[in-house]
Amino acid sequence: MNIESFRDYCLSFSGITEEFPFDENTLVFKVMGKMFALCDVDEFESINLKCDPEKAVELREEYPGLVEPGYHMNKKHWNTVSMQGNLPDDLIKEWIKDSYDLVVAKLPRSDRELINSSG
Predict the structure, then answer these.
(1) Helix (H) or strand (E) holding 36
(2) Distance CA 25, CA 60 (A)
(3) CA–CA distance, 106 with 43 (Å, rounded to integer)
(4) Average pLDDT, stretch 24-48?
(5) Domain coordinates of the chain in residue numbers?
(6) In CATH terms, is domain 3-108 a member of 3.90.1150.30?
(7) Are 45 and 82 in contact, with CB atoms under 8 Å apart?
């Protein structure tokens, strides 16, 4: 997966914004103002994705060196996924969608209804 397909996939969900809240290199995707994915736009060596804590540990064990605790993030809830490995795009997309769904599930009902009506 390259940065363009990553960006396009993230933007395909409802209620998404993209911004650079930290610096000019870190692209952050948010749903209703809450982060669900981020990456370095210059190097695109990895992406950070929110993950269920139990699944996060499982993925780290199943894909050592490719899935690590979230860099500069809460390591219980975030994974850093290497884009330098041979992970299939479909698997990465599944994890992006899981991240999005986790964040949406924690939103207030009014925000979830807004997302559902626009998608």
Answers:
(1) strand 34-40
(2) 26
(3) 31
(4) 97
(5) 3-108
(6) yes
(7) yes
